[in-house]
Amino acid sequence: MKKLILTSASVAALAIAAPAVAQTNGSTVLQSGANQTATVAQDGANSDSLVEQSNANNVANVQQKAATDLADSKVFQTGTDERASVIQASGAAQSRVQQSGGAQNASVFQDGSSSSVIEQSMRYNEASVSQTGDENTSVVLQSGVNGAVGDPDGNYGSADAAALVGVTQFGDGNGSVITQTGDNTVADVLQLGNDNVSSINQAGNFSNAAVSQTGDRNSATVVRQSADGTGDGNPASAPVVPDVFADALVSQNGDDNVASITQDAVPAFASITQNGDGNDSSIVQTGTASGAVATTLQTSDDNTSRIQQSAGATASVTQGGGVNGIGGREWDGSDLPPPPPLGSGGTLYLNNVSLIDQSADGASATVNQNGILNRSSINQSAAASADVAQAGVYNTSVIGQSGTGSATVDQSGAHARNASVIAQSGSSGSASVTQVGADLATPENAPTNVSFVDQSGSDNSATLFQSGDENLSTINQSGDDTVANVSQTGTNLTSTVSQSGSVTLAEVTQSGDENSSTVTQTGAFNGAEVTQSGSGNGSTVTQSSTALSGAIVTQAGEDNSSTVTQGFVGGHQANVLQDGTANVSTIDQAGLGNSAGEYVDANAVGVTQSGRQGQSSIVQRGSLQSAYVEQLSTSEFARSEIDQGGSIGSGHSASVVQAGLGVDSEIKQRGYGQTATVFQGGEENSSVIDQGANFGSDHVADVTQTGSSNFSDILQRGDGHTATVLQSGSGNESLIDQFGSDNVAAVTQAGMNSLSTVTQSGSSNSAVVNQGPAGM
């Protein structure tokens, strides 16, 4: 055994014997065992070196160059075949290498007054550290097997090439801490700039972490890996060959960026790339499920991203845009963009914000924000998928998924300020929202397009498109197999769709200004289609029946109103077309097979109002009723009322055409198989038809009025009556009362202020009345 001790006293004695020089270096080498090698070269001033070696085959090389002053190097080696190389080029560099367990390799290069600590235990660990600058600190703690922080080349006389270095710090005040307690771990740190901080903690096997920071005051504060990847670590003395790494990668280019990664999943992958200044990204992946992947890329300044995943989930966030020149905004998690100047309370965010929380298997979330002050929050607690893309200024997207579903949000516009909320708690739901905002209406800087989608049933689908300003859409789906499609282009448009039934369809298309549509479906196999343009129009469709009801409403004028109600069991059909001004249509259908037009044929319209301030009311009870109302463009203040069927009536038909001013038509049909036809022109004409009381059937009534201030009243009871009235004069009055069966009455009035009364109470009676000028 060979032992060499070179103490500081012997160094002092040599210094006294030698000519006077400025150096006061000290070197101590303690060796025990066999075949130890220690090389110390000190060319600077006031530097110290300590090398302790035991057992066998250890190698230590220490070089303190001429520019060093107050440099200090300590190397402690125990075990077998441990190698350490320390090169200190300048300044008061501090280095400590402590190795135990055998077959360790450490390399340190320092150019400046920096500090390096490497502690290696167990075996087959490698660490290479290179620091250039002052007040840099590097700590590498390796207590597992085959940990790799770089790959020292074993050339002890020179520093490692850049590609072989595990920790590289170039600048001043940088700090790096790497702790490896697992086996077959890899960690790399590159910091270029000043006052950057990196911390890596690897407790699992086959973990891989890389931190790259360029700029000043960047912080990758926590990269913690306690999960196990898979791979081939044999032989243990060779570099690890990974199969599936538990990865964590951080790359920051700019100033004052902060990144934090915490991983406990098996395996997990997280990558944070921030180009710009003041960005903040935090990724937390916990749980025991495999396949969690989180990627955040932020290019611009002051962006914030939070991702937390506790199961096999995938989240990718990309936030671009530009520099925010209008100041930060507060956000308390509310749905709508808060008003200026700062917001509605809560955290002050300086630019784009994305918050993703996934706690169930199979969830996937993708957020892409290209603008400023956009906010996105995604919370998924079941196997769900969400995709959000936002461009422009001040968009808000909130997605909450607790069931199996997919959600897609795309918001943009020159002004933007769109807001979307999607809540999915059912299974297999699908929601797609596209909103393009513009500052077109007062108040300025208010939210442009706002949408709410709530899906709690199964296999529901919602598609929503809004473009313009001050638009609002709400879709609520709590039934099963429902479909809602809403498209709104314009300003101050409002749409509400509520579906709690099953196998229902709602289609809403609106353009123009201040139009409103409400569709409520609680039955089954129902369909509603609403199309509105113009301004100030309102449509309400309520379907509570349980079979094949359909409603088509088209409004293109101004201030028109349509209400369609379909209930009970039935195959109702309703069709409304209004393109005039301030017209009102009401359809109430219950029972089986009612019709006010044809749902399958948009051209077979049941109610058409193209005049001004017309009113149409249709009430259908029973089955197989049919009603047609047409108020032409020449009509004003026309009113039509049709009441068909009652509780047991069926098979009735009513047709009303109104082209006059202030005309009024009332049709009431009971019993079975009644037919009524009314045409009204002129002014202030009025028609009343009452058919089928007391279970009557098969009556026919036909009224034509073209004069002014004429009045017709037809009352039919019994069976098989026919009544015809033609009025073309003014101030005429016709009264027909038929009771019995198969009676016929015909009244023609062409003069002025004539009065006709026909009463029939038997059967097969016939009455003909002609009133008017001579020759009629």
Automatic annotation (TrEMBL):
The keyword Signal applies. Residues 307-345, 441-466, 757-776 are annotated as: Disordered. Keywords: Signal. InterPro entries: Curlin_rpt. GO terms for cellular component: pilus. GO terms for biological process: cell adhesion. The keyword Signal applies. Residues 307-318, 445-466, 757-769 have a biased composition (Polar residues). Pfam families: Curlin_rpt. It comes from the Bacteria. Residues 1-22 form the signal peptide. Residues 319-328 have a biased composition (Gly residues). Belongs to the CsgA/CsgB family. This is Curlin associated repeat-containing protein. It comes from Sphingopyxis italica. The lineage of its organism: Bacteria, Pseudomonadati, Pseudomonadota, Alphaproteobacteria, Sphingomonadales.
